[in-house]
Amino acid sequence: MRKRLIVAASAAVLVSALAGASPVVAASDEKSERRGDAADGAALDVTRVSVEQKLHEVTLRAGFATGAADALAAAGEGSSVCFKFMRDGRTLEICAVTRSGALRATRGGRTIAAEVKTSGDELVLRARESKLKLRPGVYRWTVLATAGVCDAALSTVPCTDVAPDAGAYEVRVWRVALAGCEAKGPLEVRRGPRKKKIALTFDDGPSSYTNSLLHTLDKHDARATFFMLGSQLGGKGPAMRRELAAGHELANHGWSHYPMGGGGPRATAELQRTQRAIRDATGFTPCAFRPPYGDTGPDLRRRARDLGLTSFIWSVDPRDWATPGTGSIVGNVLANTGPGAIILMHDGGGNRSQTLAAVPQILSSLKRRGYKFVTISELMKYERRFALVR
Ligand code: ZN
To answer: Is there a catalytic annotation at residue 346?
Structure first.
C-alpha cells in the first residue's frame, strides 16, 4: 500500500511523505536547526547556534552576546568555536579558529577550504557537505567555544562555553537528490550537440543486471540514463533510488512497451502512468521519454511534450537486445559513436550478460578518445531541479 501525504507547512515548505520504505522528499531545498543557549557570562559567550543546509551547502552559525569580531578579538589568539557532530560513537569536529588575527576553518584539527567570517554578532562557517564530511543522517551535536587567552585559575569568567548547557542538539543532514529536469527545444532528439559528450542509455530495466552495471559505470565515473517501463517498476524502488543517488537519470519508456507511434489518448495514459510510478518511487520526475521500438509520430511527440517530456530516439544502436556477441556490441558502438551520440543499450528485458561485458570496453575506449559520459538532460543542457531527501 502506498499512501501519499502532502503537508503545506508554509508557502516555502512543501513536504510530500511516502509511506513505508520510500523517502521523504522535501521540495524546499533549505533546512535549518536553530537553537538558543542562555547567556552565562563566559569569555566567549555563545547565545544561539544553528546548522543550515541548502542543497550541498552547509552553514554553521554561532551567535554571541556581543559583536562576534570583538568577542573573538577579546578572547585572544587561538580562540575557537567548535561544532561537534556525533554519530555511532564517532565525533566530527569542525571549528573556526583565530590564528594570527585571522579566522580559519578546521576539521579534525586540519585546515579545510571553507568560508569563515564574522557578521554582526554571528560567526559563520560555510562549506559543501562533502568538504565538512557530514554524511546524510541524524547527528547529535554541541558547540564548544574556548577563549584562547584565558587562565582558568585566575579568570573571573569561564574560559569555555558549551551549548547546550546539558545534553546535545539533533540535526538531520539531508541527501541531495535530483528532483526533476525541464524539457525544452525540439520535441524529438536523435543526437545531442556535437560536443565531446555522449549519452549512454539503457532501456527496459531495472533488472538483476542493473547493480553490476551501476558498479561499472561508477568505476569509470560515467553517468547514464535509464528508460523504464512503468509496468515493471513494482518492487524496484530501491534499485531506482540507487540509480538516482549515483547521479544517473531516470526516464520514461511507456507503461507496457506498446508501440505508440500513432499517438492518441492511450499514449498519454502510458506516459502519465509511468511518470507517476517513477515519481512516487523516487521523488524524481523525468523529462525524457523513449518510444518503444523507436516508433514515433507527430501526435505522440506533442502528447509527450505536454507532459514535460522530450522523445529521445538514438544515434547508435548495437542491437544488444539480439545478443549478437560482446565483440559485435563493442565494435558497433566504437565504429558509430561520434560527438553528441545517444547510444541505445538494454539493462533489462532478457539476458544482458553480453551488454554487461561490453560496457567496460566501450567506456575505456571512448574515454581514451576524450569523451565524457553524461545523462540525457546534461547532454541537452536542460535545467535540473534538486531536492533534499531523507
Ligand atoms: Zn524497450
So the answer is: yes
